[in-house]
Structures are given as structure tokens and as C-alpha cells.
Design brief:
ten-stranded antiparallel beta sheet; single chain; two-stranded antiparallel ribbon; mainly beta
Length: 187
């Protein structure tokens, strides 16, 4: 069952669900919370690896990502990020989320931006029970025009579902989790 705006406010008030900074009430709509684009970005800096074997072990894939992606790009609130057609970039949300182990979250893009070709996630739209941090966005421009993005702009929305029971293996207690408490873009 998805949480309504009333239920989202209750979960935030109780401290079980945490969003920092706390969204103002006009950003909690029906069944979602609007989220903003943060100020950190990473892009592929070369075409050095034109073929990436996804069957390779995870460490090898991480090494390839670290080698081919730029260091983090930090923008001020007044700077712009230009996403070319067919361009791909990683970015973070401005908000930091802390999920209880009784909820799962779902990230969706804004339909008004999607109609211009902006996708905010390729596959990573689930926010696991027990997860905490800034959400990494997988930005892709499927349109024909350059899209100009600015830190602080509304980029998507999160909805929340109650699990049928408390998770016994939430993200924050599993071994080997690599994205817990991320503030930056970890590949």
C-alpha cells in the first residue's frame, strides 16, 4: 500500500522516515514528495572502453567506472549543467533520505521533464528499506535538444510503500553495502 500525503507527513513527524531538509507541505503531493537536483555530477570522460563486459567481476566493473568517469563536478546554485542529446550523467539529489526497514521508496521523474526527453533513472529507482543517503540519479537525455539543468531545480518525486512485515535484511545491516550514507556519487 502506497502512503498518501497525510501518511507521509505522519511518518516524517514520527521520525521513522527522514528527509533532510524536511520538505515543506506544498512539496508533499497526493502520494509523493518532490525532490530537487543536487550540485554534484559525474560524466564519462573518455571512450577508452568502447566495450564493457558486464559479466566481469564487480571489482573489475568498478575499476572501469572509476577510470572512465570524471571526478565529481561541483556546481553552485547559479551554475548550469548541460546534458547533450544522448548524453548520460550521474548526479545526486539535494535531499538526504533515511528509510526505515518497514518502507520501500520509489523514484520517478517529473512528467514535464520526461516530455522533453529527460530520464532520471535507468534502473535504480528503488530505495531499499534501511537505506540512507542522497539518491544518485542516472540522468539521460533521450531528446533532440540540449537540456540545461540547475542545482535546486525539481527533478523528480518519491513515493513510499509499506512492507507486509519488517525487513529482516534491510540495506543498513547487509554485508558489503557500498551506497549506504552516500553524500557523493559512488560508482
Amino acid at each position: 500500500m502506497r502512503l498518501s500525503d497525510k501518511d507521509i507527513e505522519f511518518w516524517l513527524d514520527s521520525g521513522l522516515l527522514k528527509i533532510f531538509p524536511r520538505p515543506e507541505s506544498h512539496l508533499i503531493n497526493g502520494a509523493t514528495v518532490d525532490i530537487r537536483l543536487g550540485n554534484r555530477f559525474r560524466v564519462f570522460r573518455s571512450n577508452e572502453n568502447k566495450i564493457i563486459n558486464l559479466g566481469n567481476d564487480e571489482q573489475n566493473i568498478k575499476d572501469i567506472l572509476e577510470k572512465t568517469m570524471s571526478p565529481e563536478i561541483f556546481l553552485s546554485k547559479t551554475d548550469y549543467f548541460f546534458l547533450k542529446p544522448s548524453g548520460f550523467a550521474l548526479a545526486v539529489t539535494e535531499e538526504k533520505i533515511s528509510m526505515p526497514n518497514t518502507l520501500v521508496g520509489w523514484l520517478d521523474g517529473r512528467s514535464s521533464l520526461g516530455r522533453l526527453g529527460l530520464m532520471v533513472h535507468a534502473t535504480a529507482h528503488r530505495i531499499d528499506p534501511g537505506w540512507e543517503g542522497k539518491i544518485v540519479l542516472e540522468l539521460f537525455n533521450s531528446g533532440k535538444a540540449v537540456l540545461v539543468l540547475q542545482p535546486g531545480m525539481y527533478i523528480g518525486a518519491i513515493s513510499f510503500e509499506i512492507l507486509s512485515s519488517m525487513s529482516i535484511r534491510p540495506y543498513n545491516v547487509r554485508l558489503g553495502t557500498k551506497y549506504l550514507q552516500q553524500d557523493s556519487i559512488i560508482v
